[in-house]
Design a protein that fits this description.
There is one protein chain. The protein is built from eleven helices and 45 strands. The protein has a 45-stranded mixed beta sheet that branches. Helix 8 packs antiparallel against helix 9.
């Protein structure tokens, strides 16, 4: 076979086998390019494809660069494309048109983790002013349906778009018109762009049915490095058709504002500036020439998201090579019907603000020191919750670094009344005044209050009332640096006059502390961190409580220390707490306390200590001396525990002198029912009359109707016991031991079947009384008893003891022994029943011993009350 035929066959085979492969590779590459461009869900229905045109019955696709970006769903029907060939494989689109098109816009999903920064340094002029060559010379969409989000959910607009390139004028022209479905309004946009590399220019006009007019003219002269920017905006009162459309979109304008908005809002700006050589607009102010005139006029109130604005502002700025030659600004504005959600949520009204700006200078100055004076004054308000504000500030505007410096500012605030209903708090006559300075930049700011700041107010709560609070604020600094939390640090000192609480005595209180706050904002939520150091709370009675506090993540840690109180100089506790027991007086010794309280995850815990050192005082008609103890109070959620393992009372005198007493015990209860807990006695020992009383470990449940407690009596000295009796006619010797089963209830203390007996080898009793001699002369049997008791040596002394809630003490006494001088010492067995009014006997002892003037007076008052009660009972009979 000839060689040329072999080559032809090989070429045909390679073409047949290679075309599918090339087509497959080309299709894969095209799919990758489409996906990289953010296009998905692509659907094409071809009708015709030629060398100079193409037609599609439908083209659908979604454009979304990333999952968090806005999405555009495009649907083009009867799409036509025309082009011409400039050279081999270089087509030029001449026409793109679609008889009917639909564009659905879905807003972007915000990404809270993504840092959003917009820097002015990113602005720069393009190197190439020509539009991309692939753009068609004509674009025509006679019917374009727009579907976009609105307050009503989704809203639709109809649009017509026509764009073309005029080769003779060498400029692009854009014309479009938007109408709503009911054709109530019509928005027209006309734009002309001349893409000349020496003198590019843009003219743009936007009109809304004679109600809104916006014009923008931007011209460049690149040869002379000059540019001109002109902007004008006029907004007239809305028409009935526009209001009807806004209503259908669920946007309602206040009727009162519609009545007052009668004249158009006008804005005008004329800026002539030199183009930086490198096109970097960041250096526009520092190194080049700029001349700017601006003015705004709102003769009638114009509604803004935060209120109604009315007034005028005008100014002029001239800069040459970073030096300001001329700076002038003057403004008189009022802002009414303020919509400040945070204040309104707190029940505070701000009727309106009068805002004045002023500054004028013709002397050269730096870009970093542009002066501006601001005066802000609130409009009068009749409501009790109307906030009054008066402030003046002297600023320096740093145009070089885009910063604001507050050189000096002062402000005064007053609020007649502020109520927080949910918390039950009411503040009245709130007044604050002070001065401040600071600065602001895009990535950091700081506000520092001077030391002349003061806050005055009164506070009312169902549980607490403070007639006047005077809060002094010193060294206060509020700042935030970049992405760091907002921080506040200050020293606070408060004086509180007339503090009233059900548990407190009305008096003057003082408080001071070093405070630091951090406000951390993340994921649209804010958390507060607070630290308080060197805190001191004190009052006129001498009570002083030091404290430190840490609050973060809704967890609280509080440490507190009660300064030592030396009670010889007075008792601050009795002068502070209104429910301090009236019958309790502490007049000697030292008392101190400290503790740690925590609130974590909704649960309370803490460990607190109380130190008692050599306390002395009076409770009712009892004198106590030498109280010493270390006591612990622990908190755990809804329960508390009070304990001490070293309680000592050196002396107790209630007519009978007792002591010392030693005890180790703890008390546990719930905070909901603090009086119905359990007492666990580990040790209780009392020295009395040469012997002692003790209790074995046991528990007392105060929730029960009664509790049993058994005292062990050990070696009670009979001589000391008889010395306590008001009569001086009886003496004795011996040691007594036994048990006293005591029952404690709400009705009082009772004793049943108590037993006491003399220890071996016994003892003696000597009783001699003139009254007993007279009684013996009448009754010979009694004469024998009295004669025996004159010197009775006993081997057995035993008694059964009972006591009831009326105070009656019964002794069933059994004596066995003899009088050596009587009937040759023959054995005698005596059974004697004694009855004694124990409270009356103790009262007699208290009067006889004269322990204390206070106790004597209380005993006398007690006797008078008893006598009056007895007389009243007799009168009823």
């Amino acid at each position: 076979m000839p060689r040329w035929r072999t080559r032809i066959i090989r070429s045909i085979l390679l073409l047949i086998l290679g075309l599918p492969l090339l087509a497959t590779l080309g299709f894969i590459w095209l799919q990758q390019q489409i996906k990289a461009a953010g296009i998905s869900e692509l659907s094409i229905h071809w009708q015709q494809l030629g060398l100079h045109s193409a037609k599609m019955s439908q083209l659908q696709f979604r454009f979304q660069p990333s999952a968090s970006d806005a999405a555009f769903d495009v649907d083009l029907n009867e799409l036509s494309l025309q082009w011409r060939w400039l050279s081999w494989m270089q087509p030029q689109l001449t026409l793109v048109t679609s008889r009917e098109a639909r564009l659905v816009y879905t807003a972007a999903t915000p990404d809270p983790q993504q840092a959003k920064t917009a820097g002015f340094e990113q602005l720069s002029l393009p190197e190439q002013w020509q539009l991309p060559a692939f753009l068609p010379q004509q674009i025509h969409f006679p019917k374009l349906q727009l579907d976009m989000p609105c307050p009503a959910g989704r809203c639709q607009l109809s649009s017509q778009i026509y764009a073309s390139y005029d080769s003779q004028q060498q400029q692009w022209q854009w014309q479009s018109q938007l109408t709503d479905e009911a054709q109530l309004i019509s928005v027209k946009l006309d734009a002309f762009y001349r893409p000349d590399n020496n003198t590019p220019a843009l003219d743009l006009t936007l009109q809304l049915d004679q109600q809104l007019a916006l014009t923008l003219k931007q011209q460049f002269n690149l040869a002379n490095q000059q540019a001109s920017t002109q902007l004008a905006l006029s907004i007239s009162p809305p028409s009935a058709a526009l209001l009807q459309l806004l209503t259908s979109w669920q946007l309602t304008l206040p009727e009162r504002w519609l009545t007052e908005f009668t004249q158009p809002l006008q804005l005008a700006s004329n800026l002539n500036w030199a183009i930086p050589e490198d096109g970097n607009l960041q250096r526009l102010l520092q190194s080049h020439q700029l001349d700017w005139h601006f003015a705004a006029l709102a003769p009638s109130p114009f509604i803004l998201p935060w209120g109604w604005l009315q007034g005028e502002v005008q100014g002029q700025l001239n800069i040459t090579d970073g030096v300001i030659n001329r700076w002038q600004v003057k403004s008189e504005m009022s802002l009414s019907q303020l919509q400040l959600a945070q204040l309104q949520q707190q029940g505070i009204q701000l009727p309106g603000l009068m805002i004045n700006l002023s500054s004028e200078t013709s002397e050269p100055m730096s870009l970093a020191a542009l002066p501006l004076n601001i005066s802000v004054k609130s409009q009068p308000g009749a409501a009790d919750n109307a906030l009054a504000l008066n402030s003046e500030m002297r600023l320096k505007l740093n145009l070089a670094d885009l910063a604001v410096i507050i050189e000096q500012g002062n402000a005064a605030l007053s609020l007649p009344q502020w109520q927080l209903t949910e918390q039950g708090l009411s503040f009245k006559q709130i007044q604050w005044q002070g001065s401040f300075h600071g600065h602001w930049q895009a990535d950091n700011w700081q506000l520092q209050l001077q030391d002349d700041n003061a806050l005055k107010l009164s506070l009312t709560h169902p549980l607490l009332t403070i007639e006047q609070i005077h809060l002094s604020i010193t060294n206060m600094q509020l700042q935030q640096v970049k992405q760091m939390p907002m921080q506040l640090s200050t020293q606070l000192a408060a004086s509180m006059q007339g503090l009233q609480h059900a548990s407190l005595v009305k008096q003057h209180w003082q408080w001071q502390a070093d405070t630091k706050l951090e406000l951390v904002t993340a994921n649209n939520t804010a958390s507060l961190k607070a630290t308080l150091n060197n805190g001191v709370l004190s009052n006129d009675m001498g009570l002083s409580l030091q404290h430190q506090l840490d609050w973060r993540d809704e967890n609280l840690a509080l440490q507190w220390q009660l300064a030592d109180m030396f009670l010889l100089a007075g008792n601050p506790l009795a002068g502070t707490f209104s429910d301090w027991p009236a019958l309790l007086e502490l007049n000697r010794g030292r008392l101190g306390a400290n503790g740690d309280i925590r609130w974590q995850q909704g649960k309370l815990s803490g460990r607190n200590q109380l130190q008692l050192r050599d306390l002395s005082g009076i409770y009712d008609r009892t004198l106590v001396k030498g109280i010493n103890a270390d006591m612990q109070l622990s908190l755990h959620d809804s329960q508390f525990n009070i304990s001490s393992d070293n309680l000592v009372i050196n002396q107790i005198n209630h007519g009978l002198e007792l002591g010392p007493l030693k005890a180790s015990a703890q008390y546990s209860a719930t905070m909901a029912q603090p009086g119905t807990g359990v007492i666990a006695l580990e040790q209780l020992a009392l020295q009395v009359m040469g012997g002692n009383l003790s209790v074995s470990p046991q528990q007392l449940d105060l929730a029960q109707e009664s509790n049993q407690l058994t005292f062990q009596i050990n070696q009670l000295d009979l001589a000391q016991l008889l010395q306590q009796h008001p009569s001086t006619d009886i003496k004795g010797q011996g040691k007594l031991s036994g048990t006293l089963p005591i029952s404690i209830s709400k009705q009082g203390i009772t004793i049943k079947a108590g037993r006491v007996a003399a220890e071996q080898p016994g003892g003696k009793i000597q009783y001699q009384s003139a009254s007993s001699s007279g009684m013996g002369s009448v009754n010979q049997s009694m004469q024998l008893v009295f004669s025996a008791l004159e010197d009775f040596h006993f081997t057995v002394l035993a008694s059964e003891i009972s006591y009831d809630t009326s105070g009656k003490l019964l002794l069933a006494l059994n004596l066995r022994g003899a009088n050596p001088a009587l009937q040759q010492g023959r054995a005698i067995n005596l059974n004697i029943n004694l009855e004694e009014d124990l409270p009356a006997m103790i009262t007699s002892l208290q009067l006889t011993n004269k322990l204390n003037d206070t106790i004597t007076k209380r005993v006398q008052q007690y006797i008078q009350q008893k006598q009056a009660a007895a007389a009243a009972a007799g009168a009823k009979k």
